[in-house]
Amino acid sequence: MKKIGLTGGIGSGKSFVAELFRRMGVPVFEADAEAKRLQQEDAELIAGMKKLFGEDIYLRDGSLDRKRVAAVAFGDKEKLAQLNALVHPAVRRAFERWLEQHKEMPLVLKEAAILFESGTDKGLDGVIVVSAPVELRIQRVMRRDGISREEVERRMKSQWPEEEKIRRAQHVITNDEKTLLLPQVSALKEKLSA
């Protein structure tokens, strides 16, 4: 089995690229979605979240107040590091279980926004970075999340610069709304499956 990471800065379109791979038959582990699920279901992680952010970080209906977590974590590097120290081990364990379920597959992807930043690129056979111009990324996130430019830029600062991700990656997919995505994804899937 070949295990390939898929990452890109906020608004790069990595989730869309992951969906294209999935439609081509490649199983995709979505680390960010799994982290959200675990923050709702994993008792140990929930206890840690409450200790870090306060008991009231979970709303009356039991859901996590994600906007408040983001506002605190993206404004405080130490809190963000503590949050990551709670979440990443839980996601890593979930990924190991997921790999066991897909052990017959020749190629799998692990999609994660902060793949390099969290060190979860280690143990993978390669990494794909989805690249897009900064201004396009900002506009996409503002539309998608209904947040201000300042908030998007603050979140971007918590991630590594795209240039650094590209330098460390083995493959780059350009998602600039000019270059066709499907041929890039298809060619890369063939190359990685060979």
Properties at a glance:
194 residues; alpha/beta; Rossmann fold; 2 domains; 5-stranded parallel β-sheet; 5 strands; 55% helix
Strand and helix layout:
Elements: E1 2-7, H1 14-23, E2 28-30, H2 31-41, H3 43-53, H4 66-73, H5 77-101, E3 107-111, E4 126-131, H6 134-145, H7 149-157, H8 162-168, E5 171-174, H9 181-193
Parallel strand pairs: 1-3, 1-4, 2-3, 4-5
Helix pairs in contact: 2-3, 2-5, 3-5
Describe the structure.
The chain is α/β, with parallel strands linked by helices. It folds into 2 domains: 1-27 and 106-194, 3-Layer(aba) Sandwich (Rossmann fold); 33-101, no CATH class. The protein contains 9 helices and 5 strands. Strands 2-3-1-4-5 form a 5-stranded parallel beta sheet, sandwiched between helices. Helix 3 packs antiparallel against helix 5 (77-101). It is globular, with a radius of gyration of 17 Å. The mean pLDDT is 94.
Short overview:
With 194 residues, the protein is α/β, with parallel strands linked by helices. It contains 9 helices and 5 strands. The protein folds into 2 domains: 1-27 and 106-194, 3-Layer(aba) Sandwich (Rossmann fold), CATH 3.40.50.300; 33-101, no CATH class.
Major sheet details = 5 strands, parallel
Helix run count: 9
What is the name of the CATH class of the largest domain?
Alpha Beta
Count of the separate structural domains: 2
Oligomer: single chain
Report strand order across the widest sheet: 2-3-1-4-5
Shape: globular
The low-confidence runs, each spanning 5 or more residues with pLDDT under 50, are: none
**What is the CA-CA span between the terminal residues?**
11 Å
Average pLDDT figure: 94
For this structure, the CATH topology of the largest domain is Rossmann fold
Instruction: Report Rg.
Output: 17 Å
Q: Quickly give the structural class.
A: alpha/beta
Tally of strands: 5
Please write the string of helix (H) and strand (E) elements: EHEHHHHEEHHHEH
